[in-house]
Write a structure and sequence with these properties.
By secondary structure, the protein is an alpha+beta fold. The protein folds into 2 domains: 1-29; 30-203, Multidrug-efflux Transporter 1 Regulator Bmrr, Chain A. Helix content is 25%, strand content 29%. It has helices at residues 2-27, 66-73, 154-170, and strands at 35-40, 45-49, 52-60, 89-93, 109-115, 134-138, 141-148, 174-175, 180-183, 196-203. Strands 1, 2, 3, 4, 5, 6, 7, 8, 9 and 10 form a 10-stranded antiparallel sheet that branches. The chain is globular. The relative contact order is 0.19.
Length: 205
């Protein structure tokens, strides 16, 4: 009987936690960069992202940049201004910009980006106090995107960006850069409710 009551309490607790997570996910709505879907298949879609501004940091793969960027939007900037959190958080390998564009892992370094709210640009975004944080205006750009649930792990990302690369190549689309991992949810969101995306920049005519 005691075991039954104990299991019942655990079930009720998990049920309450699940309802809380669903309710929180529904109630919390973060701003996303604006885009237009220009093409769609059963596997992926092609999006045109409008001009947007990001705070970014370059870091070693064994030393994440999330805390540096989170500190920036939490007030580690001139004026100690708090910046609203937006989604997604993106992460990709750093590449050298040359002509032609080359794809390379620069000494194993990565770039993580927080997208700033639409009201900000390089001209009016709070200036970081940490020199590792850069404010960058990104141009309009096309991306091939595949969405998936589950954990935002490297293995899950690799599985889906490889699948995306295959279908984009099979459809004759030209990939112009390394894959980007985009995450939209907090670590407390149940894996089956999470929204993750793998993205490739594209040449689109």
């Amino acid at each position: 009987m005691e075991n039954y009551l104990s299991l019942s309490r655990i079930f009720l607790f998990l049920s309450a936690l699940f309802v809380f997570q669903v309710a929180s996910g529904t109630a919390m709505s973060y701003e996303e960069p604006k885009y237009t879907v220009v093409s769609q298949t059963d596997t992926y879609e092609v999006r045109l992202y409008k001009n947007r501004t990001v705070a970014e940091v370059t870091f070693d793969t064994d030393n994440g940049g999330f805390r540096v960027l989170f500190d920036y939007i939490s007030g580690a900037n001139h004026g100690s201004r708090k910046v609203e959190m937006t989604v997604p958080v993106t992460q990709s390998e750093k590449i050298d910009m040359t002509v032609p564009v080359t794809e390379s892992n620069t000494d194993g370094r990565m770039i993580m980006r927080f997208f700033l709210p639409e009201e900000y640009s390089m001209q009016n975004a709070p200036k970081p106090t940490d020199q590792r944080v850069r404010i960058v205006d990104l141009p309009e750009q096309y991306f091939g995107v595949i969405s998936y649930s589950g954990f935002a792990s490297d293995s899950n990302f690799e599985k889906h960006h490889r699948e995306l690369h295959t279908v984009l190549s099979n459809d004759g689309l030209v990939i112009t850069g390394p894959p980007v991992k985009a995450t939209y949810n907090s670590p407390f969101t149940p894996p089956f409710l999470r929204r993750n995306e793998a993205m490739y920049p594209l040449e689109w005519n």
